[in-house]
């Protein structure tokens, strides 16, 4: 069965996520996002009447759910498999973009929102990070980790992966991801009981 083609709204949200992952939030405009998504500018304002913050919020949530779906699927095989999938997903993004793209959730998190706009995208980013941590922590607990240890390790995994994605872009190398992968895998194996 073929997958239905994305709607104009979905293309705009995905395009915004891609542009934010490459340029950051402040350097991403609605006009450029519409052009990138091959959507009429008017439809962008139609779907996102609240403007750039609404679009950025949707882009963060889109990325968050896309990653969470992959994590849920891979964590069924255990926390090491989930870690490998999480790292593999970001490796593919940085390599396929020739080290030009990173994580739009991180990009939104590190930029100060304009004072006259509510930080809805920043709130969405916090929720996404919490979801990713929750998925990892639940898997760690299911495999024998104590509750607090699982929560701490899940936070470390998300923080390390997000940080190494930024390092990969700066260095134009996947070495930071590779190094983090080995250490994180060892920590997981030392934490779980199966």
Structural summary, described in words:
The protein is 74% helix and 0% strand. The chain is an all-alpha fold. Helix 5 (79-96) runs antiparallel to helix 9. It starts with 7 loop residues before the first helix and ends with a helix.
Descriptors for this entry?
single chain; elongated; mainly alpha; 9 helices; 194 residues
Short description:
With 194 residues, the protein is mainly α. Helices cover 74% and strands 0% of the residues. The protein is elongated and about 55 Å long.
Total E-strand runs: 0
Mean pLDDT: 92
Derived structural class: mainly alpha
Low-confidence stretches: none
Write the SSE topology:
Layout: H1 8-23, H2 30-36, H3 41-47, H4 52-75, H5 79-96, H6 104-110, H7 120-142, H8 147-171, H9 175-191
